[in-house]
């Protein structure tokens, strides 16, 4: 699966009273637009687009052995491309519909295998899907006002009004990516203008319901108050791990997510998320036990049973420091008893980082960022890989376990209106949790255009 299909190039505003996808980046310079073309403020419709190109490469690194799902030790280079067309229409004062068309092409290094914290959020792991356009989001948004007070918001691809009720209930339904609504983070959620690593831009331990492209079908409700938001969502899980088809057997499959967001004094934001997934998951303990009897590598798919669960919690913080610096942190854990199914192979994670605007070097709309993340596995999950098991991302044939730790840094330059270019580096210790392999440094170059 490609992590959170879009990040959109739309950064999350500090108030965060509407979903991440609904909040546009502030203008990048006084009097200058952050998009290639101007967008009218007085229409019922919306039309825009984006293009994101990422090239990544690494040199040769230490690898005494490897397996079919290993990060390749020989030098390699890969380029991904992602474009999206956003359309929206305001049917009534509080009713809006949105349809996105998207195409993802190219590939990631090692076909996006061998890392739990993969280096490129735009990559689809299944190369057989091709680069033909497909429907991304197809959403209906309904707002119910609680009181007459209103608050101003910026129009964008997922919010067509210039103001909304300050106290309200919102219902979203349709094809969506849950990462647009849950676990959003101002300096750490956007692969188009910020970091590109899967487990920096999202909480790696949140195995959120999605197909291999990062989308699902679901319903989400929010109660929004000026100082807090409570959101609850129910979405379809894939039929098999990292699969494209969704499971409509609602008795045995689905993802339930609950998040409380508190907007505290001085711009501090705290988001606490809990989730429970139900699907035809395999058991690490059962697969490992069968392997010890047979002498063969364990096969998780042979132990799949409908209705198995994975539960977890996650915390997400944003801390502004003055007008130029933003800090963030995440921590997450899931029970790790049953197989990673939809996002990535992480059972615990902790990350921290931040970004800085370029005021000090007279590049007011440039941004530099740095972050570190440490990912871990449950005891059953690591034993499965040690015995030679294959996950949908990982499998070196053996495992000398260590936490996968990643440091990522980038510089993003605003060239003109909606045109941006960035360079980045990621240094990875114990890729795929294997201390026998690596470390490896991955470089990247990125071009992004908002139309």
Written account of the structure:
Mean pLDDT is 92; it is low at 1-32. With 451 residues, this protein is mainly beta. 5% of the residues lie in helices and 44% in strands. The chain has one domain: Beta Barrel (Porin), CATH 2.40.160. The strands form 2 sheets. The protein has a 16-stranded antiparallel beta barrel. Strands 5-6 form a two-stranded antiparallel sheet. It is globular. Helix 2 runs parallel beside helix 3 (379-386). The two termini are 27 Å apart. The longest helix has 11 residues, at 284-294.
Task: Summarize the SSE layout with pairings.
Elements: E1 45-58, E2 76-92, E3 95-106, E4 134-145, E5 150-152, E6 163-165, E7 168-176, H1 198-201, E8 216-225, E9 228-235, E10 254-263, E11 269-281, H2 284-294, E12 305-321, E13 325-334, E14 348-358, E15 363-376, H3 379-386, E16 404-416, E17 419-429, E18 440-450
Antiparallel strand pairs: 1-2, 1-18, 2-3, 3-4, 4-7, 5-6, 7-8, 8-9, 9-10, 10-11, 11-12, 12-13, 13-14, 14-15, 15-16, 16-17, 17-18
Helix pairs in contact: 2-3
Shape category:
globular
User: Can you tell me the CATH topology?
Assistant: Porin
Strands ordered across the widest β-sheet: 1-2-3-4-7-8-9-10-11-12-13-14-15-16-17-18
CATH architecture: Beta Barrel
Oligomeric category = single chain
Question: What top-tier CATH class fits best?
Answer: Mainly Beta
In terms of per-residue confidence, which ranges show pLDDT below 50 for 5 or more consecutive residues? Answer: 1-32
SSE string = EEEEEEEHEEEEHEEEEHEEE
Helix percentage: under 10%
| Main β-sheet description | 16 strands, antiparallel, barrel
Helical segment tally? 3
